[in-house]
Amino acid sequence: LWTGLLAEWLNVVLKWLFFGERPFWWIHESGLIRKEPLMLRQFSVSCETGPGDPSGHCMVTGAALWPVVTALTELASTHSRRLAVKLMPFVAYALLLLAVGLSRVFVLAHFPHQVVGGILAGVALGWGLQAQAPAAHSPAFFVTTALALLLGSLALRSLILAAGIDIDW
């Protein structure tokens, strides 16, 4: 849960900084389709209105499932010496991330590079936080960190708005 929370916070901050376009809107605004307008139907899953870089679905999934995958790998290693069995959790993890990424591209919520960026950021965050076991910290640590994240994001938002940049474009 802690890793997922940090991944979600970092994703919002990165979206404020990268301002990634979304394919559904970009196709109509780019001017590349001049002859006949591309007939796209909008569905609730493709109605994303904010920035799209990096993919939050991929980033949070990649980060939040990393501890689960490493725990399953350790469990598999205690019960089997076969490399295929030990690697099975990582294969399932990679296939799940691929499926999430492809689905986000399919519904025109993200460009492929946004999906790849989300996956890489999520895996890196999950890997980087695995040494920071949440059980080793006191509740005061979590309250302090959550407050720091809140104040940090409010400060960053204020700086961006003061610079005249519309983060709700």
UniProtKB/TrEMBL annotation:
Keyword NAD: no
GO cellular component, one term: endoplasmic reticulum membrane
EC category name: hydrolase
Leader sequence residues: 1-15
Membrane topology: Multi-pass membrane protein
Entry keyword annotation includes Transmembrane: yes
GO molecular function, one term: glucose-6-phosphatase activity
Subcellular location: Endoplasmic reticulum membrane
InterPro entries xrefs: PAP2/HPO (IPR000326), PAP2/HPO_sf (IPR036938)
GO biological process: gluconeogenesis; glucose 6-phosphate metabolic process
Known pathway: Carbohydrate biosynthesis; gluconeogenesis
Keywords, ordered alphabetically: Endoplasmic reticulum, Gluconeogenesis, Hydrolase, Membrane, Signal, Transmembrane, Transmembrane helix
EC numbers, comma separated: 3.1.3.9
Record domain Phosphatidic acid phosphatase type 2/haloperoxidase: where: 3-130
Family: Belongs to the glucose-6-phosphatase family.
Protein name per its UniProtKB record: glucose-6-phosphatase
Gene: G6pc3
